[in-house]
Amino acid sequence: MRDSPFLPAVVMVAAAWPAVFFTPNAFATDYMSVAEAQKLMFPDATVFAPQTLKLTVEQIKRIEATSGTSLNTTFWKVVAAKSGDLLLGYVVNDAVIGKFQLINYAVAFSPDGHIRDVEILSYRETHGGEVRSKPWRNQFVGKSAAAALAVDNDIANISGATMSCTHLTDGIRRITHYVQTVLAAP
Fold first, then answer.
1. Mean pLDDT, to the nearest integer, of 114-131?
2. Residue 127 belongs to a domain
3. What's the CA gap between 118 and 113, in Å, rounded?
């Protein structure tokens, strides 16, 4: 065995084996906390008041029908951004699956339901982190539930980030219909 031509290869595989099978995902990045995102999106706010909202069956059906997606509010956290008694808008936090991993994000809305800002809070995928770029996120600003909010329609795709782009866009579209149905001032 000592003179075996395979010995160096066996030693190399044995030495690399733990790294191959037990290396943790080193791609997860937390960019900001929910509180930091809220303050960034509403710098004039003095209060961020959590909103407890129970959807009716009718509201759920309406949101699903108008957004074209199923409704899952498991991750949604809604806060009202206020300056004193003045309502500045809302921040909704959500999470969607990119390709394999969760992407946590926050969307800021004006009181009338238009998107003010989108922030990526955590990104765990190995590819597609370009969805965090300001130009890509700015495509949503000013849009509401009246917009299509669909990749390759009014939202550009990013090569190599198709799943992240699509799933984030679907999530944001779902939230805009939620905001329009439940929170937006007429």
1. 90
2. yes
3. 14
